[in-house]
Design a protein that fits this description.
Blueprint lengths: L4 E7 L5 H8 L5 E7 L9 H10 L3 H19 L12 H4 L4 H12 L2 E5 L10 H12 L6 E5 L4 H16 L8 E5 L7 H5 L5 E7 L2 H11 L4 H7 L3 H10 L2 H6 L2 H5 L1 E5 H6 L1 H12 L17 H4 L11 H10 L14
Parallel strand pairs: 1-5, 1-6, 2-5, 6-7
Antiparallel strand pairs: 3-4
Length: 339
């Protein structure tokens, strides 16, 4: 198998990571996976699986964690539609039998299967299922099911996980060896989610918190739904500040800092050429930049309209409060960035 390289583009929510994805489309030789690939950081994803199998092992926790992971992967695999369950459609996006790879991965982590019966398996049973289980117990009938026993070492888990992810994408990259993934690792837990991608670098896109606040409120996304009701910035300020607490830990990690490039959305829009240069220097490569403005045009009204939204916001008291509480993250586009 050829060695794959990953470029993981991440953000904190409405911070502009999709703009960076569009910019990277203008470089030759980079393969962009359509849609977010969140298998490492999502609940029931790889990080939770490692926690249950390695860090906080219990023989029943390992079985339930594997079941939750398989169920989560079914969601990733299937398509979605108006009258269908939610799905990410990676079977078609990557053009593989996604669940076959998941089954192989789970098998590689499993020491053995056994028929077991535990009340833990009935925690999520429906009323009918619980009733049937009680009847079977009364009749001395077994409720045992096939159960996973898995207790890998940390190194073994990471090695198998890296092999699993490489396997998913090796055929997707018909030419070249670099794939760009959106939201593939956690911006607040970079070190622990980055390790699953064998050779990876990270671009973190941030944005003026005043503009993020407005975007969240207008779209009603994430904490924005609550902000819409409360008409306040208090929860947002706490949310935003805590989301960036990890920066203190990263600052002392020299190895991690070599693998992480931090950009502002405002840089991409208002200082486009400099942003392209930063990306090239960061990757220390001869990536060919061939399609200027084809996918991301900083001069377009749609893009410019996303910078400095806070200036026109009707409630400037909220804007001033964010400025006072989070001054180190606010950007004055009149003085800090080129037009």
């Amino acid at each position: 198998m050829k060695n794959l390289n990953y470029i993981c583009v991440i953000g904190y929510g409405r911070s502009g990571s999709s703009a960076c994805i569009d910019l990277l489309k203008e470089f030759e030789g980079l393969h962009i996976l359509d849609g977010e690939f969140r298998i490492a950081k999502d609940p029931h994803g790889l990080l939770d699986l490692e926690s249950a199998l390695v860090d906080n092992w219990d023989f029943m926790r390992s079985d339930i964690a594997i079941r939750d992971f398989i169920s989560y992967c079914h969601m990733l695999s299937r398509g979605s539609g108006l009258f269908k369950r939610f799905g990410k459609d990676f079977e078609n996006k990557i053009n593989i039998n996604f669940m076959n790879f998941v089954e192989e991965y789970v098998h590689s982590l499993t020491d053995f299967l056994y028929f077991g019966d535990s009340a833990v398996h009935r925690y999520s049973s429906s009323s009918l299922q619980a009733f049937v289980s009680r009847i079977r117990s009364k009749l001395n009938k077994s409720n045992a099911i096939s159960t996973y026993f898995s207790k890998p070492s940390e190194d073994f888990f990471i090695n198998k996980t890296q092999f699993f992810l490489d396997n998913l994408f090796v055929n997707f990259l018909d030419k070249g060896d670099t794939i760009v993934l959106d939201q593939s690792i956690s911006p607040v837990n970079i070190k622990n989610t980055k390790k699953y991608f064998r050779s990876s670098k990270v671009i973190v896109v941030d944005r003026d918190p005043r503009d993020i606040y407005i975007d969240l409120v207008e779209k009603g996304m994430l904490i924005g739904a609550d902000l819409n009701i409360q008409r306040s910035a208090d929860k947002f300020i706490e949310w935003y500040g805590l989301m960036r607490n990890n920066l203190k830990n990263e600052a002392g990690d020299k190895e991690l800092s070599k693998c992480v490039l931090r950009l502002n959305f405002e840089d991409l829009v208002c200082d486009y050429e400099k942003s392209v240069k930063k990306i090239n220097i960061f990757f220390k490569s001869n990536m060919i930049y061939k399609s200027k403005y084809k996918f991301f045009n900083p001069k377009s009204y749609k893009t410019k309209a996303n910078v400095g939204l806070w200036k026109m916001y009707k409630n400037q008291d909220i804007i001033n409060k964010i400025s006072d509480k989070l001054p180190q993250y606010c950007i004055n586009i009149n003085t800090d960035l080129k037009k």
